[in-house]
Write a structure and sequence with these properties.
single chain; alpha/beta; Rossmann fold; about 45% helix
């Protein structure tokens, strides 16, 4: 049986680890080829090799805050596999601190990577996809963009901004057959979240009706849904994947 993404090509930023890697893994299982972009050239090359090598996965060093880098990532995908059907804007960083202690640099970096990076990825993908007459863009926001968390004025602002950006972009490109949707993960078990102090982890866990953290594969499933024809009549939507936290 052909997979949900048979013969599709996907570009995934922040694809060398965590949620991005899990999405790549699931996409390949559903028949797609993937091109991963990541800041760490060595790590992204290793990830692509682990995922099956050149036939199904390529790894490209990419700084998502650079328009040239994002274009080069796309050009590499087109050269390798002929075109891009799916774009996943997942790359992200955190620089948590209370507003009083947060440096201007910490604010700027987080806004740049998340918000500008997602804008560049969405813009580049949309330009390519509208020529093809179809495509799906999946942008990773966060529950932090819905509720706002102490110590995350930068991250919460960026993640809320991704929702507004996605909705505006969705309206601009819908007529061309291109869909833009968002995922808002809650507490997902990754290297980044497991580095949290235990008391903060426990406090977050207490807010989750399902009583557990999510797995990266559970975000990957929703990304697969939004990338595939199963969601063909959905654009500009925001799907919360949180175990019911802060609903």
């Amino acid at each position: 049986m052909a997979g949900l993404l048979a013969d599709k090509t996907a570009v995934i930023t922040g694809g060398a680890q965590g949620i991005g890697y899990a999405i790549a893994e699931r996409f390949i299982a559903e028949g797609a080829r993937v091109v991963l972009g990541d800041m760490n050239a060595e790590q992204v090359a290793k990830a692509a090799a682990e995922l099956g090598g050149d036939a199904v996965a390529r790894g490209i060093a990419c700084n998502v805050t650079s328009a040239d880098d994002v274009q080069s990532l796309f050009d590499a995908a087109i050269a390798a596999f002929g075109g891009v059907d799916v774009m996943v804007n997942n790359a992200g960083i955190t620089r948590d601190a209370t507003m009083r202690k947060m440096s201007e640099t910490d604010f700027d970096q987080v806004i740049d990577v998340h918000l500008k990076g997602t804008w560049l990825g969405t813009r580049t993908a949309a330009a390519h996809m509208r020529e093809r007459g179809s495509g799906a863009i999946v942008n990773l926001s966060s529950i932090s963009g819905k509720v706002g968390f102490v110590g995350q004025t930068n991250y919460s602002a960026a993640k809320a901004g991704i929702v507004g950006l996605s909705k505006a972009a969705a309206k601009e490109v819908a007529h061309a057959g291109v869909r833009v949707n968002c995922i808002q993960p809650g507490l997902i078990r990754t290297a980044m979240t497991e580095a949290m102090p235990e008391r903060i982890w426990d406090q977050k866990m207490s807010e989750i009706p399902m009583g557990r953290a999510g797995e990266p594969s559970e975000i990957a499933s929703v990304a697969t849904f939004l990338a595939s024809d199963l969601s063909s009549y959905m654009t500009g939507t925001v799907l919360e994947v949180t175990g019911g936290r802060l609903m």
